[in-house]
Amino acid sequence: MAGSWDGSFDQGSQSDDSYLFERLHIEPIYDAFVCPLTKQVMRDPVTLENGQTFEREAIEKWFKECKESGRKPVCPLTLKELKSMDLNPSMALRNTIEEWTARNEAAQLDMAHRSLNMGSSESDVLQALKYIQHICQKSRSNKHVVRNSELIPKIVDLLKSGSRQVRCRALETLRIVVEDDDDNKEILGEGDTVRTIVKFLSHELSKEREEAVFLLYELSKSEALCEKIGSINGAILILVGMTSSKSENVLTVEKADMTLENLEKFENNVRQMAENGRLQPLLKLILEGTPETKLSMASYLGELVLNNDVKVHVARTAGASLISIMKSGNVECREVALKALNQISSYEASSKVLIEAGIVPPLVKDLFTVGANQLPMRLKEISATILANVVNSGYDVDSIPVGSDHQTLVSEDIVHNLLHLISNTGPAIECKLLQVLVGLTSSETTVHNVVAAIKSSGATISLVQFIEAPQKDLRVSSLKLLQNLSPYMGQELADALRGTVGQLGSLIKVISEITAISEEQSAAAGLLAELPERDLGLTRQMLDEGAFQLIISQVVRIRQGVPRGTRFVTPFLEGLVHALARVTFALADEPDAIALCREHNLAQLFIDLLQANGLDNVQMASATALENLSLESKNLTKLPDLPMPGFCASIFPCYSKPTVITGLCKIHRGTCSLRESFCLYEGQTVGKLVALLDHTNEKVVEAALAALSTLLDDGVDIQQGVVVLCEAEAIRPILDVLLENRTENLKRRAIWVVERLLRTDEIAYEVSGDPNVSTALVDAFQHGDYRTRQIAEHALKHVDKIPNFSGIFPNM
């Protein structure tokens, strides 16, 4: 034969590889070997009665066609009718053909062996690989021949070829060679061959990736190789990635998935899959594995870092099983389950799933149990952490019974027990239990019960003392709790902070730290902002300790943009501005408060803060502060000194001339300034406050309207105040506030301002023609409280809707 695969082909019209290899021969082929019907070498030759020989399958098909067409059976060659369709096996010919085939295949295999090296042409190598595929697919026994001929290592070497086609064909050939042959798989598993195959998974060419996945799938059917595949760095990671890839073809994704399913036989592989985001095998073992396997997998689950969506999936799939393990008597099992549940519960949505699975009652029991069955303190800390997570998830925990007599987490006895634990455990558990109380006080439905329990237990001072704890997490948790409590027990907290033990000083120290703004600073400022603003004792102490100066410096620092990019800037600034505004509530009683406002020009600072768009709480607190400052203006205005009248003028007033003094404030009739007397008019503040009347937040609108109303207050020139508001084009926005009727407080404030405006005849005349305003005033007159009805009555008189002699109120 020629030394090349190409020279041995008997060219024909068919392109099928199997056909070509059947026509490829070394020894001469005899005509007697070839079936006249198929034109191929016969495998099962049979002879007819006339001595003609055919392939059994071919002649049977011929006879069948004759019968189906209604013809009598004839010989395909002679076309003469046959008396019998008996087929006589030609054993001698068959044996001769088999011997000839064996010699031919041996020679072909030898030629393939010689072609499988880097020195052969690419076409010879590809043809040799195709031939090996052909004989393996032709007969399973040929796979043993390939193995015994030591062809497998030579095929493996071709994986390093520089030809992409050769590499792809080699991977394909190896797959066919090892298919359903454990011995060949064992040979392929030796050395670094599997590692080489895995490298193809990350190859840039999709065809090589596809062939590598198909080959690994065949290898993964062997348990021995499952462990080896999983031990190769990156193998499972890449396979998991392929199963979720949108760029791979469907068949490749399917084979990657099936390979991973085979690899699940080993726990180490399952762990790797879980680590790389394929959690279902691990969860399945937690649900269905042996007790030892469940424990092992749950333990590993507790060590994983899971994204939030996965936490929800795990909670739904294995949450109940983990809770069951947590309730068992074995401390080791409970520890494993608690750690896993701690991981899962750190996301709100997954916490809610765990609550519905029944996690709260056993957690509470674990925390409160003492004696022989109590958990070690390290596990109580985990239980407290999980409880804090689930309570802060937003779930209505008040509906969950946790004890006898239908007790819930906010029942007085339960809260007392929590407070007792807080006072008698270490900082780590104290912190988590405080977080539990933070969650319980964050809901309107549960906060009142917790407040009542805290008051009845006398724990207020103990809770305040945590502000000075050395552990930062403990301080932050306590501050957040106190901030939640302050709207409901602000005076008690203010009294506790005002003592001599230094908690107020600690609070101010935290706020004044010049660092990146922290959660602790934000919580501290929030707490201070929520304390009763009219508590003069607290304000006095803050003045004495220089707290307001420190707050001012922090506000200025934030406005200058010094601390950047922290998520606590906004709540910190809101707390600071509210805390700073409290000094304006003490102006009438504390000369030092006035001095502070003048020294730091706080009126201007609050005016600037009015323009903090998007920060509603800052704008609201600033407007309130400006209201308080403006109310004090009439007391701080420097009234002019009028000259004494002369002798004649004192006797004969007709000889006197009125003294004309220029430069006086038209509102306060004296010498005013923004810095010294906090005059809004002199500070050109009116327009900025009017702009806020169009705000979407009614509380901001109310605060702005309250500040504007100081220009119409008793003790100032109301007529001039109306003029100032007219100049600022404030009349229509004020009337709009009345007509919008957003809240009762805002409506009452608007009625008061509108009545003052209507004292001016020109405005009253214009408004009298507006039926909407009249309707709003009538509605307030009929349905408002006593004071509002009185004011509305006066307003209606100004627009002639009620006679001036009418002072009768219905139903009175």
UniProtKB/TrEMBL annotation:
UniProt keyword annotations, A-Z: Repeat, Transferase, Ubl conjugation pathway
Domain U-box: 28-107
Domain of life: Eukaryota
EC numbers on record: 2.3.2.27
Pathway named in the protein's UniProt entry: Protein modification; protein ubiquitination
SMART domains: ARM, Ubox
Catalysed conversion reaction: S-ubiquitinyl-[E2 ubiquitin-conjugating enzyme]-L-cysteine + [acceptor protein]-L-lysine = [E2 ubiquitin-conjugating enzyme]-L-cysteine + N(6)-ubiquitinyl-[acceptor protein]-L-lysine
Record SUPFAM superfamilies: ARM repeat, RING/U-box
A GO MF label: ubiquitin protein ligase activity
GO biological process, one term: protein ubiquitination
Main EC class the enzyme belongs to: transferase
One Pfam family of this chain: U-box
Protein's name according to its UniProt entry: RING-type E3 ubiquitin transferase
Species name: Rubroshorea leprosula
